[in-house]
Every structure is written in C-alpha cells, then in structure tokens.
C-alpha cells in the first residue's frame, strides 16, 4: 500500500457501496447516454453536446431516495415544534439556560457579533484566553487551544499530528476523525471497534518513525466507552500519541463531568491529546484541543484548520465559560444525565427493543433497515417526542437506529411520554 493511501472506514464507505452499488449503476446509465461525444437529442449526426455535469448528481440523489437514504433539512422552532427534545446533544440542558444566554448577550454587546478574524490576527480575545485557561483547569490538561468547532479541532489535531506517520483509527470513529485521517496523508490502519490488541499489533508492525492512535471516548452512535487505559498503555509502549475525542463525554462522564480521560486517571499525561466540543454538554458552540505545550504550539504554527479559520465568536466563548461555571458549581448534573440515559435504555429493553447500557447520554435503539428507523422516528413524533434517526452512511448497513439522547433536566412526565413512544415502536417493529 502506498504511504499516502487511506483505508476507508466501514461506517464511512462511499454512498454507492452503501446502496449496493445502486448509485453507481444509475449514474452509469444516465451518463452512458452520451456515447462517442453524441448526446441523445443531438440535432445532427456527429454534432457534439457537452455532457451535463449535474446528471450524475441527480442520478445519485435518485438512487439514495430509492434506498431510503435521502435527507432533507427541516427548520425547527425555538421550542422544537412543541416536541420533547430527545435528538439534540444538549446533554445537560444548558443551551437555553438564562445564565448562558445572558453571558452570550453581554459578550456580543462588548465584542460585537463575530471575532473579526483568524486566531493569529484579530480573532483571539481575552475571552478566548480565559476559556482556554478554564478548559485546561477543568480537564487537568497542560494547555488548551480553542477552535470554532469540534469538527475543525479534530481535523487540525489528526491531520497535523499524524502527518508523515502511521495513524491507527478505531472503526467506529466519528467522521471528523476519519476526515482528519484522510487529510493527514499518513498510512492509516483501521482497527476493529475497541480492540486494543489490534492497535498493539498495528503499532508493533510499523515502519514509520511516529504514530498516532485515534479514538472517540464515547462513540457518537453506539454510546459505548473506549478502553482508554488499555489504549494508553499500548500507545506508551510503542512511543505513540493517543488522541481521544471527548465530544460526547466532556460534561457527562466522570464524577464531576471532567471527561473520560480524567476518569481513567490519564489527565495531564503528555502522550494524551484530548479534543472537545463546546456544543454538546456545554450548550454553546466551538471546540478545542487539550494537550502538552508541544502539541498546542505545533497546532498554532502548522495546523491549517486553526490558522486559516475565523476565530470562535466571543458570545460562544462567553456561553461556554458560563457553562463551565455551572458544571463546576453543580457536579450532580453529569450523573443526572447518565441516570436518565440508563432509564431510557432499560425502558427500551423492557419492551424488547435492543439497547445497550450507555456509558454517557447516548442510547441507540437498533432497528435494522432505514425504513424501520424512519418509521420509528415518525411514531415518536406522533407521541410528541423528537428522536434522532441514524441511517447509512452514519451507521453501517443493517444497523439503522433511533439515537436517543438523555438530558439532565428530563422530568418524570417526560420519561413517561418516552415510555409510551417506545411501546408504540415495539408494536410497530413486528410489522416492519
């Protein structure tokens, strides 16, 4: 394999593969109507018409719809169209908390609506510096660097730290980590889900001078926890960095919500790189990398997704700071989110629906084909609940699911409504 070749993650295979090559066949038929430069409907023999560059896109969209994989944007109202929200990543229920809203409003009045430039020009404010210091202190990391999104934090960290080496990536990793692998132009070894022995073998057989092990802490669809201690031991033994994406664990995992790395006793270890998002448990927007000074300095100097992006809006930085204050002052919030997730999983299991014990706030209910997941989401909506519906390529074929996300502020009435919706889905499942 060429050094720059990147293996395709099973959950991120091209859409024509997901749809059983349907897309490829349909596109081929449409584009194939233009033969030897002569298009259907040409005025005279030998007269050429340029091929339609949008034909393949229309054909691919048609094939996705036929396979039940079409998507559409559905704008919502501030109150989620009157539905109980079980689809967002607002795990602690802070996104509409008045303390965050007021902090954001004060920042917007003081700083304006945007950061006005990249972090290296005018996009670093005192709020950014304060937020980096707070994130560092909360997670136990040596340094922190704030990005405008968690996606870009992952792109920058993986692409920059993995460049020219070996990247070992879990098969269940989020798309942002996978895209970082691709941008790194490193050799990428995709290992089976949560398999530390496979990571050990991949590192032991490497010829590259440096290596990066990449994993989610809590996986975004499965909701399970990576074996961080085992992965760290393997990484240290082979002189590799371990990058852990805490998108779904910061604010939820650990006694005080300080994340899975902290809970595993690895906080501040120089070989551990943490990436985070501010848009889930912290109810704001943005992302960050928490790591040793050498890592942060490298990203500032060479991380293209950091250097060439406009800095996070000051209002978002202020909201994230307010959220960290709340989580620090109310250490019971992470436990409430986890308890509610366990209640959701138990309710699904009691009704014969497959659900695993959640490590954080994500509870997948696997239903199989895309049509079943879409139907279940519609049933939930009929019962007044908005549930996440995940289909390929977000999940492998045959594993389409409802993705239920617990919140710390769910009440007993909310849980009762969810229980009735799960009962209706269980009854529907027999006929799907």
UniProtKB/TrEMBL annotation:
Q: Which PROSITE patterns match?
A: AA_TRANSFER_CLASS_2 (PS00599)
Identify one Pfam family in the record.
Aminotran_1_2
Aminotransferase class I/classII large domain: which residues? 83-416
GO molecular function terms attached to this record: 8-amino-7-oxononanoate synthase activity
> What is the main EC category here?
transferase
Question: EC number(s) per UniProt?
Answer: 2.3.1.47
What this protein needs as a cofactor is:
pyridoxal 5'-phosphate
**Record pathway:** Cofactor biosynthesis; biotin biosynthesis
Keyword terms: Acyltransferase, Biotin biosynthesis, Pyridoxal phosphate, Transferase
Task: Enumerate the catalysed reactions.
Answer: 6-carboxyhexanoyl-[ACP] + L-alanine + H(+) = (8S)-8-amino-7-oxononanoate + holo-[ACP] + CO2
Outline the subunit composition.
Answer: Homodimer.
> Which family does the record assign?
Belongs to the class-II pyridoxal-phosphate-dependent aminotransferase family. BioF subfamily.
Q: What is this protein called?
A: 8-amino-7-oxononanoate synthase
Species annotation:
Sphaerisporangium rhizosphaerae
């Amino acid at each position: 394999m060429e050094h720059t070749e990147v293996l395709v993650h099973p959950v991120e295979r091209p859409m024509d593969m997901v749809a059983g090559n349907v897309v490829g066949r349909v596109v081929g038929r449409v584009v194939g109507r233009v033969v030897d430069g002569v298009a259907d409907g040409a005025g005279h023999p030998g007269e050429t018409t340029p091929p339609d560059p949008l034909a393949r896109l229309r054909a691919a969209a048609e094939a996705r719809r036929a396979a039940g994989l079409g998507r559409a944007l559905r704008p919502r109202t501030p109150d989620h169209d009157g539905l109980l929200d079980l689809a967002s990543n607002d795990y602690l229920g802070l996104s509409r908390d008045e303390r965050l809203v007021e902090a954001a409003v004060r920042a917007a009045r003081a700083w304006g609506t945007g950061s006005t430039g990249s972090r290296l020009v005018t996009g670093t404010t005192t709020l950014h510096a304060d937020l980096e210091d707070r994130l560092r202190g909360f997670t136990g990391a040596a340094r922190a660097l704030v990005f405008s999104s968690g996606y870009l934090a992952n792109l920058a960290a993986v692409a920059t730290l993995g460049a020219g080496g070996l990247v070992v990536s879990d098969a269940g990793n989020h798309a942002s980590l996978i895209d970082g692998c691709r941008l790194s132009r490193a050799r990428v070894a995709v290992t089976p889900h949560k398999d530390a022995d496979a990571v050990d073998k991949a590192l032991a057989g490497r010829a590259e001078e440096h290596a990066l092990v990449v994993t989610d802490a809590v996986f975004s669809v499965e909701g399970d926890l990576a074996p961080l201690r085992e992965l760290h031991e393997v990484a240290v033994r082979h002189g590799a960095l371990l990058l852990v994406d805490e998108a779904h664990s910061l604010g939820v995992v650990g006694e005080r919500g300080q994340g899975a790395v902290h809970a595993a006793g690895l906080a501040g270890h120089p070989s551990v790189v943490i990436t985070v998002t501010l848009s889930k448990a912290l109810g704001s927007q943005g992302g960050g990398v928490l790591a040793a000074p050498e890592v942060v300095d490298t990203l500032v100097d060479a991380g293209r997704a950091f250097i060439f992006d406009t800095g996070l809006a000051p209002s978002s930085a202020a909201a994230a700071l307010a959220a960290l204050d709340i989580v620090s002052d109310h250490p019971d919030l992470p436990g409430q989110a986890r308890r509610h997730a366990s209640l959701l999983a138990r309710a699904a299991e009691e009704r014969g629906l497959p659900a695993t014990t959640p490590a954080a706030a994500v509870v997948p209910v696997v239903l199989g084909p895309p049509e079943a997941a879409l139907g279940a989401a519609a049933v939930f909506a009929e019962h007044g609940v908005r549930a996440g519906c995940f289909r390929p390529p977000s999940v492998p074929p045959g594993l389409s699911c409802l993705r239920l996300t617990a919140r710390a502020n769910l009440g007993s009435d909310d849980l009762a409504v969810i229980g009735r919706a799960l009962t209706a889905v269980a009854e529907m499942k027999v006929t799907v």
